[in-house]
Amino acid sequence: MDARAIVRLLGNTAAVEGGLSDKKRFLMNGLCDLIGADAWLWSLGTWGEPGDPPVYVGIMHGGFDENRFTKLLSIIEHPDNETIVSPWIAEVTRQKKHSTYSLTDLDEAGLFSNSEVADLMEQADIGELFLSGYPVDESSMSAIGVYRASGEALFSRRELKIAHLLFKEIPWLHSAGWSQEMSAKAPKLYPRQRVVLNLMLDGLGRKQIVFEMQLTENTVAGYIKDIYRHFGVSSHAQLMSKFLVGNTYTGGLSTRASGHC
Q1: How many C-beta atoms lie closer than 10 Å to residue 218's C-beta?
Q2: 53-104 pLDDT, tens digit each
Q3: Axis-axis angle for helices 191-201, 206-213 (nearest 10)
Q4: pLDDT of the residue at 246
Q5: Whose C-alpha in 77, 102, 221, 231 is 20 to 30 A from the C-alpha of 191?
């Protein structure tokens, strides 16, 4: 039954009309239905030099409202999170090996419960997750997170295997659609600038970013000005076009139109 469901989802994904982002969204929504998850995130993890911590850019997501998504970005940027997920990152990058880890696998020492990340996860209403990483090249990987809300059951080994097999069969979706401009320049932004960048690519305007990040309008305006200068653009529309590959936008996709993951 699981094998038939995986094959059906893969076939239907390949047949989806539209760009790569449409196919990724269809695949992830289908996986959520298959294993009972409520949210997901897909990004490109990239780094400047060997040994540098990865920066996650080109973020697409589903199932998160704006508040939960902003909190999730705070978790991703938190130094404690880097410590906890670094063994998984090392396995993907050094061994060039696709791997899928549950939260229990990632945190055998129980570091999450004694970290600020635990509070951030509670604020983001995340109780359970798994990460799947697929090596793209020497300096980047396709990184996918799948989430359940607080109070939900842990992901089973069967559910992890379904996700792992599914992601393993789509190398064409892992390696395509990432803008070289994004891979080369985004990691050089400061962490808060990268958060603002991802929110802009998700379609949020300045006032929405002010609300989500709880910053002053002048501060956000300064970050946006720095981002425009960094990428050599003068408008939001020009910025988004920098991340347009093969007629498909590789930044975030808004979840405001639907609450379904």
Answers
A1: 8
A2: 777 776 788 999 878 888 888 888 788 888 888 888 888 888 888 999 999 8
A3: 130
A4: 36
A5: 102
Distance from C-alpha of 93 to C-alpha of 141, rounded to nearest angstrom: 7
pLDDT at residue 30 tops 90: yes
Mean pLDDT of 181-188: 63
Residues with Cβ < 8 Å from 94, sequence gap 6 or more? none
Q: Is 105 within 8 Å of 129 (Cβ atoms)?
A: no
Cα 256 to chain centroid, rounded: 17
What is the rounded CA–CA span in Å between residue 146 and residue 41? Answer: 7
Place of tokens 């093969």: 246
Is residue 149 exposed (0-12), middle (13-18) or buried (19+ Cβ within 10 Å)?
middle
Per-residue 3-state assignment (H helix, E strand, C coil) for 245-261:
ECCEECCCCCCCCCCCC
Closest CA to 246 of 13, 18, 10, 17: 18
Tokens of 252: 């975030």
- The Cα–Cα gap between 102 and 128 comes to 8
Q: What does the alpha-carbon distance between residue 260 and residue 33 come to, in Å, rounded to a whole number?
A: 10
